[in-house]
Design a protein that fits this description.
Length: 207
């Protein structure tokens, strides 16, 4: 193999995703001086550490379900008192407004600039609404009947993908998950409805 061939081979992408978890921190720790205040810097540091993919809560239900009143008026806040202050993803100071749509656009623009991929997911039936200064987001999630929740989030994710595609920003999408930890969140109904999400509740009775 010639030196030119070796150089070309070394520069070719492997197609493998080296994934780092940004969860909801990319918008809950984005105040002045915080780790995600500058998304270009955050992506540059991500690449320097050998990663090429970030996995995020993309706030699909908040931004695209049409069920949360005034989603653009949310302020980020901490969890209260000293709760979670020694856990990095809960160590949120808050105190700034969250324009979720603008933040989403900025993230995908920055991902493209740094040749990174994004795994689009949701933590909304887990922690994400806890960092809002209003319970409107939480209440809207809770009002969806258990058996309908996965579909509601999936429809919101479809709206999110349409939003990105219309703006030419869908290129960095690696893949989409309906939700983080579907076996450990309120996406799975606890109302005892038979048949719904049965495979997540225990071994199948089928032979």
């Amino acid at each position: 193999m010639t030196a030119t061939q070796q150089q070309a081979t070394a520069s070719e992408p492997t197609g493998r995703l080296a994934i780092t978890l940004w969860d909801f921190s990319w918008y809950t720790q984005a105040g002045p001086g915080e780790p995600f205040a500058d998304l270009d810097r955050a992506f540059a540091e991500t690449v320097d550490r050998g990663f090429n993919t970030v996995r995020i809560c993309a706030m699909p239900f908040l931004l695209f379900s049409g069920r949360v009143p005034s989603p653009e008026s949310i302020q980020v806040r901490g969890l209260g008192e000293q709760f979670g202050q020694r856990t990095r993803w809960y160590d949120v100071r808050g105190g700034y407004p969250l324009d979720g749509l603008q933040r989403l656009v900025e993230l995908f623009e920055a991902a493209a600039r740094h040749d990174c991929k994004v795994i689009v997911s949701s933590w909304e039936y887990q922690q994400s609404p806890s960092f809002a200064d209003t319970d409107a987001w939480h209440r809207a999630l809770a009002e969806v009947p258990g058996p309908d929740r996965a579909e509601a989030v999936a429809e919101a994710l479809a709206g999110l993908l349409d939003f990105l595609t219309e703006r030419g920003l869908a290129g960095p999408v690696a893949y989409v998950e309906v939700h983080n930890e579907v076996d450990n969140c309120d996406l799975v109904p606890t109302d005892g409805t038979p048949g719904h999400y049965a495979r997540l509740r225990g071994p199948s009775s089928a032979p």
